[in-house]
């Protein structure tokens, strides 16, 4: 009986000492675990790191134009743009110091500002306005962001109203 107990204790010690710590093993992830030996698929990524190059922008919504109360245009918008010349933003770089830079498809810097996140909201403060985007999904190499643009303005008897949703899909280049 003593031999059985010793054998049981030895086997338990051997198997418990061979257990490798699991966690995120990707050093680019925000939850990288330096002690992890086995990747358990728990890696999480943020917007910092690499360059986000837009691949497509899907736009849907409506626009109405009226003059002196008479509707001149009542339009539904629904299209996906993939032409690099028409994608804005074309490339974004988010820095750890909460600044960002936007580039056109010729790699010229066109704008900069600050950014912050809270939950799944990404707030971008441009020189002209503040944009609040929803992070639909993000992983090591891809992000999908949504933006709602809704406004109504009147000038000289003309009223322009629009309610547009955009989904921006970008790939990260490391």
CA gyration radius, whole angstroms? 25 Å
How many alpha or pi helices? 1
Question: Which of globular, elongated, flat, extended, rod-shaped describes the shape?
Answer: elongated
Tell me the structural class.
Answer: mainly beta
Summarize the main sheet.
8 strands, antiparallel, barrel
Unreliable stretches covering 5 or more consecutive residues: none
N- to C-terminal separation?
60 Å
Number of strands: 11
Strand fraction equals over 45%
Helical coverage, percent range:
under 10%
Order of helices and strands: HEEEEEEEEEEE
Number of domains: 2
Please give the CATH architecture of the largest domain. Beta Barrel
Q: Quote the average pLDDT.
A: 92
Reconstruct the topology from this structure.
Layout (H helix, E strand, L loop, with lengths): L1 H16 L4 E2 L14 E2 L11 E17 L2 E12 L9 E4 L4 E5 L5 E10 L2 E5 L4 E9 L3 E14 L2 E16 L1
What can you see in these coordinates?
With 174 residues, the protein is mainly beta. It has 2 domains: 38 residues, no CATH class; 123 residues, Lipocalin. 9% of the residues lie in helices and 55% in strands. An 8-stranded antiparallel β-barrel has the order 3-5-6-7-8-9-10-11. The chain has a two-stranded parallel ribbon with strand order 1-2. Strand 8 and strand 9 form a beta hairpin. The mean pLDDT is 92.
């Amino acid at each position: 009986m003593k031999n059985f107990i010793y054998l049981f204790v030895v086997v338990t010690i051997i198997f418990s000492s061979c257990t490798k710590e699991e966690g995120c093993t990707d050093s680019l992830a925000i939850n990288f675990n330096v002690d992890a030996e086995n990747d358990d698929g728990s890696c999480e990524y943020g917007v910092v790191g690499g360059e986000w190059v837009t691949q497509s922008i899907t736009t849907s919504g409506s626009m109405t134009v009226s003059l002196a109360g008479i509707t001149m245009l009542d339009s539904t918008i629904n299209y996906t743009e993939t032409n690099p010349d028409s994608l804005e933003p074309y490339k974004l770089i988010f820095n750890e110091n909460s600044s960002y830079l936007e580039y056109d498809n010729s790699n010229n810097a066109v704008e900069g500002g600050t950014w912050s996140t809270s939950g799944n909201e990404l707030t971008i403060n441009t020189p002209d306005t503040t944009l609040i985007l929803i992070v639909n999904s993000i992983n090591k190499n891809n992000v999908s962001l949504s933006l709602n643009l809704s406004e109504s303005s009147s000038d000289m008897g003309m009223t322009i109203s629009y309610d547009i949703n955009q989904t921006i899909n970008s790939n990260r280049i490391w």
